[in-house]
């Protein structure tokens, strides 16, 4: 039986954790795998600190990775109750988490590029999906599609991707910056630890992002499939 973290969803950060442990959200009481949650600790100065790596020392306070949950936890002083002490919490904690998770996702994509575990461009991605292999790195694991790219190109590659997770939360300029190019509309990561990290952080980001790509204040670029081939 998979253990559930009890005692107000806290841990001391020292014990060896079993595989896929469950955690209880300090606000909702929901029990779920910790990959869908965010761990916080209270620093020496009493400030609540996000622990996205899950490795900081101290008693862990867990929240479901959803914007509404984080906002309610701040408003209802859930951190102080769970920690059983006065704490300081940023009023814009949900926005801060969204920014941190977006940065983590793009950093992982950049690491995958440097490790040779990603290919970009419509034709290269289509070839990788058909062959079931991303270059020499391994089988496809995560499909990336710029949210401001043309719907037809995204639909074609999604159909080839089968059941692969698809990340569409970033615009072509952001993906391009992560991959060392001007614009990237289509890319795919190979299976491995980096793809695993991206799936986890992307899932958390989806629940906490400030707005969808379609509502970006800079607007959509309206890139076509042909333009994406040229630019990425």
Overview features:
three-stranded antiparallel β-sheet; alpha+beta; 8 helices; disordered C terminus; 2 domains; Hypothetical Cytosolic Protein, Chain: A; 60s Ribosomal Protein L30, Chain: A
Describe what this molecule looks like in 3D:
- The structure is a single chain.
- It contains eight helices and nine strands.
- Helix 5 (151-161) links the parallel strand 7 (140-145) and strand 8.
- It is α+β, with helices and mostly antiparallel strands and 232 residues long.
- Mean pLDDT is 86; it is low at 5-18 and 212-232.
- Helix 3 (93-114) packs across helix 6, helix 3 packs antiparallel against helix 7 and helix 4 (122-131) runs parallel beside helix 5.
- The strands form three sheets. Strands 6-9-7-8 form a four-stranded mixed sheet, with helices on both faces. A three-stranded antiparallel sheet has the order 4-3-5. A two-stranded antiparallel sheet has the order 1-2.
Q: Any chance you could write out the topology, listing elements then pairs?
A:
Blueprint: E1 22-24, E2 31-33, E3 37-42, E4 48-51, E5 61-64, H1 67-75, H2 78-83, H3 93-114, E6 118-120, H4 122-131, E7 140-145, H5 151-161, E8 166-167, H6 172-178, E9 186-190, H7 193-208, H8 225-231
Parallel strand pairs: 7-8
Antiparallel strand pairs: 1-2, 3-4, 3-5, 6-9, 7-9
Helix pairs in contact: 3-6, 3-7, 4-5
